[in-house]
UniProtKB/TrEMBL annotation:
Residues 3-311 form the Acetyl xylan esterase domain. InterPro entries: AB_hydrolase_fold, AXE1_dom, CE7. This is Acetylesterase. Residues 125-148 are annotated as: Disordered. It holds the Pfam family AXE1. Substrate binds at Y96. One of its GO terms (molecular function) is carboxylic ester hydrolase activity. GO terms for biological process: polysaccharide metabolic process. PANTHER family: CEPHALOSPORIN-C DEACETYLASE.
């Protein structure tokens, strides 16, 4: 059922999220610190992973690169079998709790003729698809685990979990562009839910992207999301503040550095958004808060009778049309 605004009201809704005065400086300093570590991209063709030998139409490479704090981040690169020349590329980020999965999963984008760079999610990879990348937070890392992550280090922007994850994602685009099988001038970013929010952040931080596809994006309009839905993962913020009652202003200040609304103002790549009117996990008004703030060419598709699954295969079709228009 509908629990948020009507479709007509969404057209005029605007987010009230505020922007920190040092937002740009914070991210410039964060990314400059990451760039002091060599990108150190490696790509090894997969021949012995479970199921990989059966992929006769695709080649899969096990990729590593250096993310936040010099930590090694894993990814897959999937390309049509026998590829030797650079291809337009799609860099994909995953939903909450998920990881890069297995070499033989997630084959659509490479099957459509693209180089598909599939980034693992630090510390996640235990909710639907597996992951192998730990979250090294200045010391001993924590391996893949079950959510949540929303309040990890939330006491300050510098310690917040998503500072590390967003930095990994920016570096993933650089790593993809560095690969011989990728045309560095034709790179798009995409994701669903958390992945859509990460892709939106990357679009606001990385120049020269060819396209953005953000399907039912998470991590948008935190002040509204944290009070209009009782569904996880936004519920984690409410649970934290129900105990840490005096930290509301501190938490909101931290989250403002990671809000898709603020990244949207800086993004210029042609963008496709989707939203489900019955989505309690990422309420449509939070998606529209980011959409209306988006600075580049944009379009949004609203699914009237869908929740967090959005358009499912219809969203795949939308993405394929967007990539055909902007990558080819």
């Amino acid at each position: 059922m509908y629990t948020d605004m009507s479709e007509a009201s969404l057209q005029t809704h605007r987010s009230t999220q505020t922007e920190p005065h040092d937002f740009d400086a914070f991210w410039a300093e964060t990314l400059a610190a990451a760039e002091r570590h060599p990108l150190a991209v490696t790509a090894m063709k997969v021949t012995d992973a479970p199921g990989s030998a059966a992929l006769t139409t695709l080649d899969v490479y096990d990729v590593t690169f250096t993310g936040f704090g010099g930590q090694a981040i894993s990814a897959w690169l999937r390309v049509p079998a026998g590829t030797t020349e650079p291809l337009p590329a799609i860099v994909q980020f995953h939903g909450y709790g998920r990881g890069r999965g297995q070499a033989f999963e997630n084959l659509l984008w490479a099957s459509a003729g693209y180089a598909h760079f599939d980034m693992d999610v630090r510390g996640q990879g235990s909710g639907g698809t597996t992951g192998v990348t730990p979250d090294n937070d200045g010391g001993a890392g924590t391996g893949p685990q079950v959510p949540g992550f929303m309040t990890r280090g939330i006491e300050a922007p510098g310690s917040y979990y998503y500072r590390r994850l967003y930095t990994d994602a920016v570096r993933a685009v650089a790593a993809a562009r560095a690969l011989d099988l990728v045309d560095e001038a034709r790179v798009a970013v995409m994701g669903t839910s958390q992945g859509g929010g990460i892709a939106l952040a990357v679009a606001g931080l990385v120049p020269g992207l060819a396209a953005l596809v953000a399907r039912v994006p998470f991590l948008c309009d935190f002040p509204r999301a944290s009070v209009i839905t009782d569904a996880m993962p936004y519920r984690e913020i409410a649970q934290y503040l129900a105990v840490h009652r005096l930290s509301v202003a501190t938490v909101y200040e931290t989250l403002s550095y990671f809000d898709g609304v603020n990244f949207a103002k800086r993004a210029t790549a042609p963008a496709v958004f989707t939203a489900g009117l019955m989505d309690a996990i990422c309420p449509p008004s939070t998606v529209f808060g980011a959409f209306h703030s988006y600075a580049g060419p944009k379009d949004v598709t609203v699914w009237q009778y869908n929740g967090h699954e959005g358009g499912a295969w219809e969203d795949d079709a939308l993405a394929l049309r967007a990539f055909a228009a902007h990558l080819n």
